[in-house]
From TrEMBL:
Pfam families: LpxI_C, LpxI_N. Gene3D superfamilies: 3.40.140.80, 3.40.50.20. It comes from Craurococcus roseus. Residues 6-134 form the LpxI N-terminal domain. It comes from the Bacteria. This is UDP-2,3-diacylglucosamine diphosphatase LpxI. The gene is lpxI. Residues 138-269 form the LpxI C-terminal domain. Signal peptide: none annotated.
Length: 284
């Protein structure tokens, strides 16, 4: 019996493509629904896919069933839309009603509600890392020189801020310099956060750091924080010293390119141990 087709609801960026290629390399058939306005259809040439607007739920579900998809990965960048902007079709309107107050929650709460509805529709929602190994690096310094004491203090401050943000299901990242929080991530995403913080950096002292953490209790199948070559490029452009993130809970996109970009830019990449991100060190 041939392997069941893996479905991918694909937003933007490299992750959904990497999942698709890894599955195919393992001999598994793949079918992607590239979400118009979010995903990048031109990058899917040569891979089985269709392009649908996010609100066309009826067409999306029908096509996934026609392709005999059972397991489904949600991956890639997406901008959170309003219900009006989605322009849901008749099936989409029923799904919106089933999600209900999920639309009033943060991203993790909404994605959990979406995953629940997809599972009620007969699909098993699985994580990208269940298909693509090596996405979640263990703890340690991956690139650059170890952060100095001042930068370590900024990292601890960033961890505390990210934990507070995550507990409120708001965002996954913060930029800290000289103990000052220059910005926190909300709906705009990390790249926009970094661009905004570049104008706020202080003269002298530590260069500042980007901290990215999964939210406490976050569904690990959905929207884990990610660091990739673009993150490094934006962090370098605003003069930060490096990027710290949770080991085992942050997706490292294209590790070789990301590490090389950090080394070239003189940035550190530091995967923090769980004891450094769960509040233990901050309570000492």
């Amino acid at each position: 019996m041939s392997a069941a087709t893996l479905g991918i609801l694909a937003g933007g960026g490299e992750l959904p493509l990497r999942v698709a290629r890894a599955a195919r390399a393992a001999g598994r058939p793949v079918f992607a629904v590239v979400l118009a306005g979010w995903g990048e259809p031109g990058q899917w040439a040569g891979l089985p896919h269709t392009v649908e607007r996010p609100g066309a739920a009826g067409r999306i579900l029908a096509r996934l069933r026609a392709e005999r998809v059972r397991q489904l990965v949600l991956a890639g960048r997406a901008r959170r839309p309003s219900v009006a902007a989605l322009r849901p079709d008749a099936v989409g309107m029923r799904i919106v009603a089933r999600i209900g107050t999920g639309f009033l929650l943060g991203d993790d709460g909404l994605l959990r509600a979406v995953a629940r509805v997809l599972e009620e529709e007969g699909f098993e929602v699985v994580s990208p890392q269940s298909v693509l190994t090596g996405l979640l690096p263990p703890s340690g310094l991956l690139a650059g020189a170890p952060p100095d004491d001042a930068t370590r203090a900024d990292i601890r401050r960033g961890v505390a801020v990210c934990r507070a943000l995550g507990a409120a299901d708001v965002g996954q990242a913060a930029v800290v310099q000289q103990g000052l929080v220059l910005g926190v991530e909300a709906i705009e995403g990390t790249d926009a956060l970094l661009a905004r913080c570049g104008e706020l950096r202080r003269e002298g002292g530590g260069r500042g750091v980007l901290v990215k953490l999964a939210k406490p209790g976050q569904d690990r199948r959905l929207d884990l924080p990610a660091v990739g070559p673009d993150t490094v490029r934006h962090a370098a452009a605003v003069g930060l010293a490096g990027i710290a993130f949770g080991a085992g809970s942050t997706v490292l996109l294209d590790r070789e390119r990301t590490v090389a970009a950090a080394e070239s830019a003189g940035l550190f990449l530091l995967a923090l141990e769980p004891r450094e991100t769960d509040g233990e060190e901050n309570s000492r």
